[in-house]
Write a structure and sequence with these properties.
This protein is mainly alpha-helical. The protein has one domain (about 25-95): Helix Hairpins. Helix content is about 70%, strand content about 0%. The termini are far apart.
């Protein structure tokens, strides 16, 4: 017997929908942390190629996450900033990706 015959198809989608309904803040926090980490890793990988141009230390992943967090909160200390066009696109679109409203 398969899942559709038993009437339990798409249980993963239902579980996610139930979590969002009953614990929305928990899900938003998980989504913000996950997307910040993924976008920070992506920003670091795009900027590390041009390390000789920017002369910024992009080797640690935390520097990419720090730059994404500063872009998201619009603080912008300026200690780490993207120098490539792809890195600028990632850091500029990140605040919109994590806006839950």
């Amino acid at each position: 017997m398969d899942r559709e015959t038993l009437g339990c198809a798409n249980q993963e989608g239902f579980a996610i929908k139930a979590e969002v309904k009953f614990r929305p803040y928990h899900m938003v926090c998980v989504l913000v942390i996950f997307s910040t980490a993924v976008l920070g890793f992506g920003l670091r990988n795009t900027e590390i190629v041009f390390l000789h141009v920017s002369r910024l230390d992009w080797y640690p992943v935390w520097n990419g996450i720090w730059c994404i967090m500063m872009s998201m909160t619009t603080v912008g200390y300026g200690d780490y900033y993207p120098t490539t066009n792809i890195g600028r696109v990632i850091s500029t679109n990140q605040p919109f990706a994590n806006n839950p409203s």
